[in-house]
């Protein structure tokens, strides 16, 4: 399994796989597999990292918003149309050091 630490430290020679549920779930524990698949199909994985709330129409599955992640990842939000930027874990901020 590819972890965020391995990708940041360069210990793993593989590229960042945008289809890695475990890595995104570790970053945002409220994420469910159904919401992840929905966002992955739409190419909007940045919503997980930025902490935006997501509701799937006609479904009971949703992702709760996280204001700490929203405020911590404003730069990532500005680059949401650049997958090379938002899928790079070096650009992710966990929101722990924003205050």
Summarize the structure.
The chain has 99 residues and is mainly α.
Name some characteristics of this structure.
7 helices; mainly alpha; two-stranded antiparallel sheet
String of helices and strands? HHHHEEHHH
The best one-word shape is globular
Chain-averaged pLDDT = 82
Structural class: mainly alpha
- Low-pLDDT runs: none
Total number of beta strands: 2
Helix content: 40-55%
Q: Could you give the distance between the termini?
A: 32 Å
Q: What is the helix tally?
A: 7
Verbal overview:
By secondary structure, the chain is mainly α. The protein is 43% helix and 4% strand. It contains seven helices and two strands. It has helices at residues 4-9, 21-27, 33-42, 46-50, 67-72, 74-78, 83-86, and strands spanning 54-55, 62-63. It has a two-stranded antiparallel ribbon. Strand 1 (54-55) and strand 2 (62-63) form a beta hairpin. The longest helix has 10 residues, at 33-42. The protein is globular and about 35 Å long. It starts with a helix and ends in a 13-residue tail after the last helix.
